[in-house]
Design a protein that fits this description.
The chain is 28% helix and 38% strand. The chain is α+β, with helices and mostly antiparallel strands and 402 residues long. A hairpin with a 2-residue loop joins strand 14 and strand 15. It is rod-shaped and about 145 Å long.
């Protein structure tokens, strides 16, 4: 009979644990009810008195959590003997998370201000990631601040930069915290009861089974205490996730240098076409200055073949510009870039003042960042009092960047 009694007692061990779990669930839904819980197993050879108070028959109601400051955190007792329940934070049990996106002029200055403000509020920077890959910089910050100071901290962000996105979530974890306290209280009472049973065990087999249950219960107690510490920390400190973008800035210091003017020298010939197939030839040179093909001014001085004058017989002062063809490279090749142009200006031919107009067709023989060599042919029209005439003006020029 004694052997059967021991076996029955050991088989009741898991039943007692199931009863504890059931009582925890009932207590979470109705903590003030007076329903009795299932009693834990008796020690081997132990007889329960009908008038003795049952250790586990008390209502499953957790004691009210002690008030502590949010900055003090949550403290728990060891996993051995029954202890006081984990202290709950003083203020309302809200787990606050905020997600914000800011646009600032300078990421480094914003980062310094946020670090300084977090230190003033006794907060903690848990993550600080800066991305600087040539594009506008981006900073990601995770900041934990005391829950009582979270509103002030979030309002301060308006002065750091422009808030472009904002989401604040406050989750009430009071019931979850209270349920965990009830579970912890019942586990500690069950642990104490099994320790009493262990003192009365008479065989090695009984001791090993009870020790295994004690180890499992202690593990459950540690797990619940960890949950309470986590919930207490989430309630005592708000978590703020920040993504900070820097406004796009025009970077002018890295732009390639560009020339402002392209002065050059020219070799020019002119064939004046007159009536009755009469032709007068002239040779000379000139200078040019401008902003490249877009626009320039040219001054040419020529001397007629066979002329005895000491000065130039033809003077041309024209202004105009040339354009490239997109179908023929758009002027981007290093060699042989064709172009067309128009010019107008003043001409003095053999002492007569004329109006000059010309159409140009040419090609850049060589082109680099610093110099250009080109040749062109112009059909020149001279219009004045003596009459009008045409001329063909081939040229060869070289320009340098300035």
């Amino acid at each position: 009979m004694a052997c059967s009694h021991r076996v029955l007692s050991l088989l009741l061990v898991p039943l007692g644990l199931v009863a504890c779990a059931g009582a925890n669930m009932k207590a979470a839904s109705a903590p003030a009810s007076g329903g009795a819980m299932m009693e834990p197993p008796m020690a081997p050879g132990e007889a329960r008195s009908s008038d003795a108070p049952a250790l586990m028959a008390a209502p499953a109601q957790a004691p009210a959590p002690a008030a502590v400051s949010a900055a003090a955190g949550t403290q728990v007792a060891g996993a051995g003997r029954p202890s006081a329940t984990v202290a709950a934070p003083e203020r309302e049990m809200l787990d606050i998370e905020a997600h914000l996106t800011l646009l600032v002029a300078n990421v480094s200055e914003a980062r310094a201000r946020l670090h300084e403000r977090a230190a003033e509020l006794h907060g903690t920077i848990t993550s600080d990631v800066l991305r600087d890959d040539g594009s506008p910089r981006e900073l990601s910050l995770t900041i934990r601040v005391p829950s009582g100071s979270s509103d002030a901290f979030l309002n301060d962000l308006e002065r750091v930069g422009q808030v472009t996105a904002r989401q604040i979530i406050a989750k009430d974890v009071g019931r979850e915290y209270h349920d965990s306290e009830i579970v912890l209280h019942n586990l500690e009472r069950t642990l104490a009861r099994y320790e009493e049973i262990l003192q009365k065990a008479t065989t090695v087999e009984e001791m090993l089974r009870i020790e295994a249950e004690l180890s499992r219960i202690r593990g459950e107690i540690d797990r619940v205490k960890g949950e309470l510490r986590y919930l207490g920390d989430r309630v005592s400190r708000a978590t703020v996730y920040l993504v900070i973008h820097e406004r796009t800035r025009e970077v002018v210091e890295n732009l390639p240098e560009e020339a402002k003017f392209y002065p050059g020298l020219r070799a020019v010939s002119l064939s004046e076409l007159r009536g009755e197939r009469s032709t007068v030839s002239a040779w000379g040179g000139g200078v040019a200055i401008g902003v490249g093909r877009g626009g320039n001014v040219e001054l040419d001085a020529l001397h007629r073949t066979g002329s005895s004058s000491h000065g130039p017989d033809v003077v041309l002062l024209t202004a105009g510009g040339d354009v490239y063809s997109d179908f023929l490279g758009g002027g981007r090749r290093r060699f042989l870039n064709p172009y067309l142009g128009l010019r107008v200006g003043y001409a003095r031919v053999a002492g007569a003042n004329d109006f000059a107009g010309a159409g140009t067709i040419g090609v850049e023989l060589f082109k680099s960042r610093y110099a250009t060599i080109d040749t062109d042919v112009r059909v020149l029209g001279l219009f004045g009092k003596p009459g009008s005439e045409l001329g063909i003006e081939p040229t060869l020029g070289a320009n340098v960047a300035f």
